[in-house]
Amino acid sequence: ETAIALQLEGDRTRPGGGRFRGFSMSEDDVENYAGQPWVVTASDGGIAWPGDGPVHPRFYGTFPRKIRHYALTIGALTLESAIRAQTSLPARIMGLSDRGEIREGNWADLVVFDLETITDQATFEQPHQHSTGIDHVLVNGEFVVDEGRIVMALPGRVIVPRNGGRPAS
Predict the structure, then answer these.
(1) Which H or E element spans position 134?
(2) How many helices (H) and strands (E) does the chain have?
(3) Is the pLDDT of residue 18 over 70?
């Protein structure tokens, strides 16, 4: 309740809205947050290479886990809401009006996945495991994953929030 109250107050008083970052390890809390329409899916993971030592499984599996576990398996939210939390909602919050939605004129940042097989595979014991069911990934219109295989392309770039991070209209 406190997080929601702070979010609403932030939306009212701060350009770009309020921001809250939850660190709960309680599955009940995570399930509750997952279904909230104002919750963005994000990972605080960075770059991890096999052999670098242990990392949190979220480095590899945050987004597929939200789809498979929270949307499709336990129904904490709809598939559409899970996709929105990973695409258009964060783009809107960051003021990136040309990203986050499939629309003419937008950058082609796309993930093509198999709804039947998308699953996070990383565990604490074996964290360097790529998720399954991700067939293609395009960044700025260029393949970085093609037919499930990583392509050594680097089309990404640093994106600076526009409008001071205020939501795009």
Answers:
(1) strand 134-139
(2) 5, 4
(3) no
